[in-house]
Amino acid sequence: MDPTKEEKLNISVERRSHQMKKELIISLALYLSFFIWWYFSGYFLYEHYPKQAMKPILGLPAWFFLSSVIGYILFALITIFTVRKLFKDFSLNQPLGESQSSLNSEEEISRQNEIEGGGQYE
After folding, report:
1. Residue 122 resides in a domain
2. DSSP character for 31?
3. Do residues 45 and 62 touch, judged by C-beta distance below 8 A?
4. Is pTM, for the whole model, over 0.70?
């Protein structure tokens, strides 16, 4: 049986925490990979290859085209694929297993006002 979208959004605090840490690590790895690509193709290729071998691509220097144009397109596609396959959609506002509908109920609001000693707004 396929879980509904609401059931997918309602996950435990531990699973949410684990998923957020996993997404953070993936995001940092993607950024670091992009930076390494950019640095290597921008600086290393420019310094270590003969200028005659680095012919212009579409009117741009090859090192610039590889680092800024190809790198951006490549990592944009990798990021889209990664987000679709590895990231999960879940509610960040839902506390400790309560359902979303109970959060906004009038009973909860009135109980909270009584506890805090507040009454109706004037």
Report:
1. no
2. H
3. yes
4. no
